[in-house]
Amino acid sequence: MRFRPLGRTGLNVSELSYGAARGADSPNDFDAAVHAAINAGINLIDTAEGYGESEQALGRALAGHDDVLVETKHLPYDSFAPWAKFTGTPATVIASAEQSLRRLRRDRIDIFLGHGMRTVESYDRFMQDGCYEAMVKLRDQGKVRYIGISELSEADGTHSVLNRAVPSGAFDVVMLTVNFLLPSAIYDLLPLCRQHGVGTVVMMPLNQASKESGLISVPAARECVRRHIERTNLPDEPPYTSPDLFDFLEPYSIPEAALRFVLAQAIDTVCFGARSPQRIQENLRAMDPPYLDADRLDRLRSLFGSIQNQVR
Ligand SMILES: NC(=O)c1ccc[n+]([C@@H]2O[C@H](COP(=O)([O-])OP(=O)(O)OC[C@H]3O[C@@H](n4cnc5c(N)ncnc54)[C@H](OP(=O)(O)O)[C@@H]3O)[C@@H](O)[C@H]2O)c1
Q1: Dist CA 239 CA 102 (whole Å)
Q2: Would you list the domain boundaries of the chain?
Q3: Whose CA is nearest to atom 37 of ligand 1?
Q4: Would you list the DSSP string of 133-164?
C-alpha cells in the first residue's frame, strides 16, 4: 500500500480508501469486503448516517481495528435529492455525531463531514446558523478529530460550494468528485486545496456506476457518454459516437484506467465502493505510479475536459 498526507491534518492515508455506502444489508459479504480492504492496507473507510445499516455494520466489522480511520457524515437536508430542503441545526449536528459514535462503537470520529452540500445558499446557512460552530465544538471536545464537508456533484459540477469553503480555512478535509467524465475539479479546486492544506478524499471515481452506466465497462462508459451527448455536454459526432472511443485505454480495463486517472491527480486518497474481496483486489492494481501515461491523460483531457455537469 502507498500512503499520502491528508492535507494539513498530519494523517497519512492510503492512496485508495474504501467506501462502505453499499452492502451492509448482507453482513457476511460486508465483513469480508471490509476485512479485505484492511488486509490490503487500506486505512480509511467512508460511511454516513444516511447509508442505511452501514455505520452499525462497520462498527461490528471494525472491532479490533482501532487503527483504521473512519470518516462519517451528517446530512443537513431532508433527503439526498438535489432539491432537498436544508434542515440542519446545531442540535441535529451534535446528535448526529453522538449517534454515529454509538453505531460505530468508537469514542472518536476521525473525520466528520457535512454531507452533500449542494448550493452556496444552504452552505452559507450551515456556516451562519450554528451548524459549523457545532462541528468545531465537537472537535474541541475531542469527539471528532477533523471536520469537513462533502459536495453533491450532481447538483454542483463546477464545485461552487467547495470553491467557497476551501479558502475560508474552516475545514480540514473535503470530499469531492473527480473522475475522467467529471474532471472539472482538477483545474482550480485541487490546486486551491493544496494551497490551503485541505485534505482531499475523492468520491465516485467510477462516476457512481450502475449496471447500465458508469466507468465499469466499455458498454457502461459508452452509455454514460451517450447520456452526455443527449444533454448536449458532448457533440453528437465521432469519436464520441464511435464503438472504438475507449480503445486507446487498452490494455487497462475501464475501471482500472478510471482509478489510475484519479490517482495521477494531486489528490490525497481515492475512495471506491466495491462489495467483494475480488473486486477490491482488482482495484488495487491501479496503485502503480505514475498510474497513467501522459498520452492517455492528455487524450482523456481533450475528450472530456470540458464537462461541467455530472451525468450518471
Ligand atoms: N456526497 C457524498 O458525500 C458521497 C456521494 C457518493 C459516494 N460517496 C462515497 O464515495 C464512495 C465511492 O463512491 P461510489 O461507491 O458511489 O461509486 P464508485 O466507487 O464510483 O462505484 C461503485 C460501483 O462500482 C462497482 N465497481 C467497483 N469496482 C469495480 C470494478 N473493478 N469493476 C466493475 N465494477 C466495479 C461497484 O460494484 P459492486 O458494489 O457490485 O462491487 C459499485 O457498483 C461511496 O462508497 C461513498 O462512501 C460520498
Answers
A1: 52
A2: 3-208+261-303
A3: 274
A4: HHHHHHHHTTSEEEEEEEE-TTT-TT-HHHHH
Q: Are 307 and 234 a contacting pair, CB within 8 Å? A: yes
pLDDT tens, residue by residue, 129-138? 999 999 999 9
Spatial distance between the Cα atoms of 13 and 41, rounded to a whole number of angstroms: 10
pLDDT digits (tens, 9 = 90+) for 213-232: 999 999 999 999 999 999 99
Ligand 1 pocket: which of 154, 279, 280, 310 to mutate (most atoms <8 Å of CB)?
A: 279
Q: How far apart are CA 161 and CA 156, in angstroms?
A: 8
The 3-state DSSP class for residue 128 equals helix
What pLDDT, on the 0 to 100 scale, is given for residue 166? 98
Q: Say if ligand 1 is within 6 A of residue 175 CB.
A: yes
Distance CA 239, CA 244 (A): 8
Q: How far is the CA of 275 from the centre of ligand 1 (A)?
A: 9
H-run or E-run covering 207: none
25 residue type, one letter:
D
What gap in Å lies between CA 263 and CA 280, rounded to an integer? 16
Work out whether strand 12-14 and strand 3-5 pair parallel, antiparallel, or are unpaired.
antiparallel
The answer to whether 273 and 30 have CB atoms below 8 angstroms apart is no
Name which residue leads in pLDDT, 116 or 27.
Answer: 116
Q: What are the start-end ranges of the E strands in the chain?
A: 3-5, 12-14, 16-19, 44-46, 69-74, 109-117, 144-151, 173-177, 199-203, 269-272
Q: Which three cell numbers stand for residue 132?
A: 459549523
Cα–Cα distance measured from residue 55 to residue 58, given in angstroms and rounded to the nearest whole number: 5
Domain 3-208+261-303 matching CATH 3.20.20.100: the answer reads yes
Q: Is 186 in the pocket of ligand 1 (CB under 6 A)?
A: no
